[in-house]
What we know:
Strand order of the largest sheet: 1-6-5-4-7-3-2-8
Number of strands: 21
Structural class: alpha+beta
Amino acid sequence: MKETGKISVNSDNLMPIIKKWLYSDRDIFIRELVSNGVDAIQKYKKLVQMGSAQEQENYKVIVTCNKDASTLTFKDNGIGMSKEEVEKYINQVAFSGAADFLEKYEDAGNTIIGHFGLGFYSAFMVADKVTINTKSYTDAIAVLWESDGSDEYTISDSDKTDTGTEITLYLNEESKEFSENFSVLSVLNKYCGFMPVDIILTGNNEDKPINETNPLWLKKPNEVTEEEYKEFYHKVFTDFNDPLFWIHLNVDYPFNLKGIIYFPKLTQNPDSIQGQIKLFNNQVFVADNIKEVIPEFLMLLKGVIDCPDMPLNVSRSFLQNDRTVMQISNHITKKIADRLVNMAKNENETYEKYWDDINVFIKYGCLRDQKFDERLKDYIIYKTSDDAYITLEKYLENQEDKKVYYTSDKFQQASYIDMLKNANKTVVVLDGMLDIPFMQHIEMQNAPVRFARCDAELVDNNETQNHLFDMLCEYTKKQIGENVEIKAQKISAQIPAILLLDEFSRRMDEAQKYYGMLNAGGNLKYTLVLNTDNTLIQTINKMEESDKKESSIKYVYDLARLNNGTLSPEDVAKFIEHSANLLEKSL
């Protein structure tokens, strides 16, 4: 007997509601229909445990593509549905629920992070017609349900004999790609790669399951080998490099949280780091990098987080204020901080070995997360120009002026570093994009500590301005014609002059460049120090004004600029030409 009914909905047409989701998550329907099949199987297993149903072999969800017929079928051997259940869960809940769902989350500013609520009717995102052929585990007669997505459906008896549900999508013209195995396989791998029931794509890899039903993160840490951790990392993140180390999360109370966080090799530029934290719910992939759940600075890392307690089908603004979400986020941060602190305390050599790779993550975390900063601030180390490692406390032990001297390029600034070493000063290497804001962060926490780049000032120089060279300073100022202060002092290096750049003005300039200000570079304060202990400077000081003196002092200035790295490519070309001319005249 075949019946025809009319679905009660508040909209004249279901399609506008469904197609609201078509352009953002067009492939989400596959996850929804496979998840429904998995859920039906798990319910059946529960009935078996209770003695209310008979055990079956090979529980599985089978996905079948038919390119010729332009169909996509999802079949499970789960609990199935009776006619009454189809009318309750499909006709009354699914279709009328679509309108309620849309109305509840209509706010355009709130992006839905999980679409589990879409359920069955997400099929109409891609299908002109959908059929459900289902048989309950009870003695109820099998049912065939059919709809084209309008407000009408047909329901009739079916000749299906095996328990479970088979859903067939007759794909619309824009969605024919989902009738081909390669398209469906990529979506299954994305969303269903770790579901707890075998997922089989017909015709793929000899019909072997595409998923791992017992993923690594559900195992106890002591049950997993190092090679298994690495193999999982390579497979999930397609990264051919081994991770540095990892943290296995396993929490049952006060919330359920499982996961593995990996520390990959990082670069100094956070913008170039392709971190990825995958969020799962009961082994079903939800989304990547949900910053309401995962603290922003952890996005530099790679990992999987499975949170069955995570509320789904909610707006991001809800997540930001959800107490459970806050607890989960704080716990993840704490576990990572604890792992790093433990390494710094008990595995110091390993900590130093990894520092070049993980310091950008730690610094970013300290800048972005106060609790993380409080835990790690005493375990920040600095790499010296001699490739050793030192804490801030150790560095400042014999530093009365509370200054930390650093280099942003130990090759370009080698002569400045040598001068500091001659003055018994240690130079640390801070050459990353985060280092300027991080230095300012450390200075605010540890006043009166100040960082000064190695070319910012002369150190331990008791020499004052030598007035015998005052006339030369005035002459040099006139010839250079730039906003550069000129001094004449003894320098503890065999160079005629050195160019210094004020630390504060340089930081201001770099901040202006970062924010795209037009006057960047206009406020740099340079000081040219003529070395009164140098024979060349002494000779120039005795010379009468002439073309030769002018040429010589400009050459000294260019040497200082070359040493400081401030010569432009055009200036370098002129400098080479000038050097050749001077050499020619001396021959």
